[in-house]
Structure formats: C-alpha cells, structure tokens
Amino acid sequence: MGLKVPFVTGYLTEHFGDDAFPTLEGYRAKGGYEAARKALGSMTPDEVIELMKTAGLQGRGGAGFVTGLKWSFMPKKGDKPRYIACNADESEPGSFKDRILLERGAHQMLEGILIGAWAMQAEKTFIYVRGEYAHPAACVQRAIDECYAAGILGANCLGTGFRHDVVLTRGAGAYICGEETGLLESLEGKKGQPRKKPPFPAEYGAFGMPTTVNNVETFSHVPHIVAKGADWFRGFGTEKSPGTTIFGVSGHVARPGLFELPLGTRLDEIVFQHAGGVPNGRKVKGVIPGGMSMPILPAGQLDVAMANEFLRERKTMLGTGGIMVMDDTTCMVRASCVITYFFRDESCGQCTQCREGTGWLHKLVTRIERGAGSIEDIEILADVTSKMEGQTICAFADAAAWPVQGMLRHFREDFELHVEHKKCPFPESFEL
Amino acid sequence: MVISDAAREKIRAEMAKYPKPEGALLAALHLVQKQTGHISGETAQEIADLFGIHPIRVMEVVTFYNMFYDEPQGRHHVHVCTNLPCSLRGARELLRGLEAHLGIEAGETTKDGRVTLAHEECLGACGYAPMLRVDETYHENLDLAAAKRILDELE
Ligand SMILES: Cc1cc2nc3c(=O)[nH]c(=O)nc-3n(C[C@H](O)[C@H](O)[C@H](O)COP(=O)(O)O)c2cc1C
Ligand code: SF4
Ligand code: FES
Fold it and tell me: What ipTM was assigned to the predicted interfaces of this complex?
C-alpha cells in the first residue's frame, strides 16, 4: 500500500527507508523537532522570515514563488486570527512526491508547519489532503495526534507558551481544489471554485482571515534550513533555484519512481541515468518535465537543467517536477486527447474561456486523432489556446492551454500526418 | 433517521475544529457516505439540518466532488487510473480487461451490486502504473491477472 522509498535520496528523504521515521520517537531519534525548538526558543518571527528569504526556498507546489517573501506578506499584528493552509491536494498528473512526504515524513512536514506558524504568528493550520489519499491522511493524523500527546502542538508548543493547532481536512476528488483559493473555498465546506484575486489570501484567506498557502514539500524543507542555515541550503541546486526537490519519473522508463536531486540536475541525466532510460530498445520521443500542465520537450532538448531559469528558455517550467517520458511509439495526438480530456473534466466552469475552451480543445484533438480533422482544425486548436491564456479567474485555463501549445510547437507533424492519412498513423502507440 | 447518533457525535467534533461549523461539511459527507454508500435527498436534508443550512447547499457540494455520490453505488468502488502516465503503461488495456471480466462497462455496477467499475484521473501513483484503487486502498504495478485476483476476492 505504501509508496516505495525514492531511488535517490537527499536530506528530505534520507531516512524514508527507516520504518521508525514516521513515528515521533523515530523522528526525534534523527534530531526531529530540534529546529522548531531553535526557532520558537531563540529566534524572533522576523528572524525566521529573514532566514527563509536568504535561503531563497521556492515553493514546490508548482508556481515556484519564494517562500520567505510569501510569509512576509502576512499582516503583522491585528485582532484577526492568522491561518496556514498546507496544500496536500497533489492532483497534478505525473506528480506523486507529496504522497511519500506524507506517508514517510509527516513529522518533518509538521515541524516545518510549526516553524512557519511561529514566523507568521498563525494560530491554526489546515492540512488539506486530497480525498483519495486515505492512507497518507491516516499517517498525518497519527503524527498530529502524537504531537498533541507530546505537547509539540496545542496550547503550549514545546513548552514555549506559543499556541498552535493543526486540523486535517480531506478533499473529495476535485483537481481544482489544489489551486490555492479553490482550496480555501473547499476548506469552508463549499464547491472548490477559485476566487477572484485580489484580495489575495494573505489579506482574505480561509474563513476571511489572513492565510498563507504552502505546499507539503515546501514545509518539509523548512526544518532543514532552520537547523543548518541558508548557506548550507544554497549549497544545493542553482544560484536562483536552491535546494533539492523530489522528481517523480513515470511513463516509458526502465525505473519509474521518485528521485530526490538538486534543482538544476539535467533532465537527460534524470531520464537516462537515474530512471534507466527507455526500455525495449526504443528511443525517447518527448518528455513532459513538470507535471501535465507544463509544455513538452522533444528528444533533442533534454540537455536542460531542471530549474525554472533554464526551463523557461525552452518555453516550459519545472511545475511539480513530475517527469513523464514518452517513447518513439507514442502518438502525440493521442497524448493530447488524454491531456485535454482531463482539463475538460476538471474545469470548475466559472469562466467562459476555460469552460468552453477546454471543451473545444478536447473536441478538436479527438477529431484529429480519429482522422476526421482538417489543417484548419490545427489552426483553430492553436487559436483557442491563445484565447484561453491570461483571461481567467485562475491559472487552470493557462495550465490547460500550455501543454497543447507545447505539442503543436514540437510535434505539429504528428497532427498533420493524421489529417493527411485520415487516420492515426502510429499503430504501435499506447491505447486510448 | 439515516445518520446514527455516533456519526452525529463525530460530526459535531469535526465542526468544533473550524472557525465556522460549515468547514466540516466535507468531513460530514465522508462520514455519512461511509455508512450509507451515497447521499440521498433524505440524507442531505438531515446533514443540512445538522449544519443549519439549506439542503441545496449540501447537494451542490455532493455533485461538485467526484468522491460523493447522489445515487446508489456498488459495495466496492474499483477505479482504474487512465491519465497519461498510467495509459502509457497499459491502463486502458487493464480497464478493458476488467470490463470483460465483470461483464460491465466503466461507470456501471455489477448486477449483484458487488462492484462499481470506473476510470479515474491521476491518483498520485504514476510511477507504479498501471494501478487501481479499491475503495480506500491503492493497488499498484498491476497486470490484468493480478487485478482480476484483487476483484475476485472482494465480497
Ligand atoms: C489548477 C491548479 C492546481 C494546483 N494544484 C496544486 C496542488 O495540488 N498542490 C499544490 O501544492 N499546489 C497546487 N497549485 C498551486 C497552488 O495554487 C499554490 O501556488 C501553491 O499551493 C502554493 O504553495 P507553494 O508556494 O509552497 O508552492 C495548483 C495551482 C493551480 C492553478
Ligand atoms: S480558469 Fe477554469 S478552473 Fe479556474 S476559475 Fe476559471 S473556469 Fe474555474
Ligand atoms: S497517471 Fe495514474 S496515478 Fe498518475
């Protein structure tokens, strides 16, 4: 039932093979909660935020916003309670890293949350776990219960007089609840429809109170930064993108799974060395580098460092670090059918461009895949994606448009061949 | 009354965790659905009464989320992930094999009410594909024979 330990580990996952590590006792045996003791006991909230800014940790939920900066946006004092929402909705296709951080490292994440709570003087954290993650949620709940029993959470955290409570909330199957304001709506017991911004969550968040939303992995890095310092943290990764991250590799590789590696590790190194390359004597055709919302790269462009400053030059992004590998049997129109089906299904429907646009994308690629499409359909496809970008309440519509744009940028020929042959010309491709 | 006293007790405990009781609505639906299998109009009314909200608010939430059902379901949910990473590794063939094995199509329930079969979007198991979810349990790295065995053992 539980996930396998990553093939390559770093500071986040080095103890994940130890079956005691998910327990409080096992976590403490590895120095657990010493960083929280240090932060709450000997650092001011502002010092913690400064440290996070210097460390330069970027959020690992997909958008890559600098965590210290986000924390500094929380209003300082006032009579309103401040909240944290930990985003454990992990539903981006291709991503499965947060799951292992919940199953094997719940205390590491909770320690990061507690440090964040101190820094932002937040009184409560809601951990929003996707509904399907029953086992990971149980692992987190057990860790929360242990923390209350041990006085780490509650009225007097670690004996410092600071109060913090943690509530576990389970989602119920909706991708859009991973978008931070969709998540906030869902926390309030509503449909997970994203909110118009501004106001941003730091001003008007969960239940109308100032709230900071961070990803599971983001919080998991925090205790390490507090314990070992910003310089140590910056020793991993690139200058602009410090630290490690957990890459998830799926699709046509010999060793699919999780790999914790520094940001900036080359994509071809991950695919060919760590994940064992493409099996059955096949070659790579394309790789989606960061979860399904991120545009694909063709085989010739895998010599790229996995960090946003480099990926952007190739018109794609790190996203959640979910790497999907497709071999040379793969029909990219079929792949586009699967991708557009997902986005059509998961659109929350509030914005016309998104609701109608995702439907059109799916209809057009399906028509082309069946051999009933025209060259004009390919043009319309490109046009629809351009009209969906930057127009909507949330970034979902962009996330739906980008992968199709990537397919057209690098594999337009696949689409044209379907039109020309009036059928799918890739008989060996995966089945739809 | 559909909702047991024990469940009501648990729901009240969940309500207390949120600044506004309505925050516990998803938790309440999970709890109740575990007993009842789906959320009928009558059940929605009882939940609405517990929260002091209109039943339409409850049904709105039920229909928005994939994991809540407003119609009766099989005793077990078998969901095969068919998103891209799983499809690349044979998820569609697996789903078709299970359709044939059970004699139903995805989205349907077996006549004896034992299994509802469906496809689902990415479940966070992409590296261990193909996979399926039986109720709350994941089964990963499957082939058709292994998947059939899992289904045959369900009561
Ligand atoms: C459609 C959509 C889905 C998202 N899903 C997730 C998710 O499942 N998990 C997550 O952490 N962030 C997700 N995000 C990003 C969040 O909105 C938010 O940026 C993130 O949780 C912030 O945390 P971070 O700064 O620690 O990365 C999603 C964004 C969009 C637009
Ligand atoms: S962009 Fe799409 S998902 Fe986001 S709010 Fe608009 S309709 Fe909903
Ligand atoms: S694609 Fe099937 S679990 Fe992610």
Answer: 0.98
